[in-house]
Amino acid sequence: MTKTTGTDPWPDRIRRGVMSGGERARRTWPQAVLIALLVVLAIPAVLLVAPGFLGPEPPAPPPAAPEWQQAPATLSPQQGLRALDASAAVPSRESLTAQVDPLLKADGGGGFTGIVQDALTGQVLFDRAASEGRVPASNMKLLTAVAALRALGPEHRFSTTVTSGPAAGQVVLRGGGDVLLGPGESDAERVLGHAGLATLAARTVEGLQARGTTGEVKVLVDDSLFTGPALNPAWQEGDVAAGEVAPLYPLALNSARFDPAVTTGPRPQDSAITAAQEFASRLREAGAAAGLTVAAGVERSPGAAQGGVDGGSGADPAVLAEVESATVAQQVDLMLRDSDNYLAEALGRLAALATGQPGSNDGAAAAVRAQVAAAGIPADSMKLVDVCGLAMGNQVSARQFAEVVRAMTAGTDARLREALDGFPVAGLTGTLDTRYGEGATAGGAGLVRAKTGTLNTVLALSGYVVDADGRLLVFSFIGNGLTPGAAGNKVALDRAATALAACGCS
């Protein structure tokens, strides 16, 4: 029996055990420290070696994009204004003007005109000489969009065909207005390259085989759809040399670019011949297995000057193959988003042809003005000398542009609503993708949607935005006589549009 001493609650055996444990701990702690140190040192080595056995760690999922980086779907063509709350407060003119007016300051010479309207009612909330005609630069494309969508229809497509030629052993590549042809296979998921020349060549071979054609084939091209000068005399030679635009033909590869990824620099000066040469090359490849050869070189069809591919005989040539473009609505979106001058001019001429006017520079300008007026927008004071906005002779007011944007957002004409998806989104897409990144404009990123315009001394921005109270506003700001290269002028436009997005100005 274990003895206890006094009031000590610990039995002798337990006490001895605790004491002996303490003594053992004192004797063994240096070894324990050493082992712990070795373990600590070994961990990094294990971490370095382990991936070789276990494989790399899966990457962490990317963080969710902030809300402002989500492209707004509030005004999709299908929804129009129905997605917005019509009871949202309308900003007061005094409050909104106090926000916007100080921001529209020209950096150097020149100055800005502008207007802001309530999209639903048309109420003017800001007006600085908004009825004054101004050089609009590429805001002109908003008018061309109206004309193309009204005259041609959003779902219309342009056909590029191959027909039998005026003589045996000839085929004719006929331009039907598609300037977005691709060199390869047709791609239904794309706008640029929706119709491909490789696909057209393969179908042509099938058509020739069905007719029993063998031997050598000569490629001709018919580009007679457009008339008048291929270059607008209102364009400056320097702009043409720099590749801002090129001579207009009713068929072109990559919107008359050598490479669709290179959107600056010289362009093909004869896009019809360039496209025909590419087609001949593709036909040569496709026809080799079928016993067909293709003669070197391409020529214009002798019937082209006489308005047809049959030498003026009046007989309809046999259609061997055909490819179709993307829809007019899709092309309008591309034109607005990338501010494509060549595409705008082609759509203007095609709108002219659809309304019985010549497919020329003058015909395009007349058709655009007529269609804008037919859409209910006063156009008598407009002066249009081209339809892409490259010419300095154009005169359109900020008020007229705001009314165009209102017509697109209103939804009363479903055709015009199709243009909404083409507006560049601030900080995200098209010609606004690199803007709205600084502190004073970041609040407008992802919210402002607007068509840009830029010439040497001209800047413009026209579009729409939903303000902080949920009210849809349309706006147009145009600067003329500006100091070339003054970066502050673009910032002034962007700050004014950002102020609208942030406005709780009721």
UniProtKB/TrEMBL annotation:
Record has Protease as a keyword: yes
Protein name: D-alanyl-D-alanine carboxypeptidase/D-alanyl-D-alanine-endopeptidase
Top-level enzyme category: hydrolase
PANTHER family in UniProt: D-ALANYL-D-ALANINE CARBOXYPEPTIDASE, PENICILLIN-SENSITIVE CARBOXYPEPTIDASE A
GO molecular function terms listed in the Swiss-Prot or TrEMBL record: serine-type D-Ala-D-Ala carboxypeptidase activity
Keyword terms: Carboxypeptidase, Hydrolase, Membrane, Protease, Transmembrane, Transmembrane helix
EC code: 3.4.16.4
Species the sequence originates in: Arthrobacter nitrophenolicus
GO biological process annotation, one example: peptidoglycan metabolic process
Gene: dacB
NCBIfam families, alphabetized: PBP4 (TIGR00666)
Region described as Disordered: 1-21
Transmembrane segments annotated in the record for this chain: 32-54
Family: Belongs to the peptidase S13 family.
InterPro entries the record matches: Beta-lactam/transpept-like, Peptidase_S13
SUPFAM superfamilies: beta-lactamase/transpeptidase-like (SSF56601)
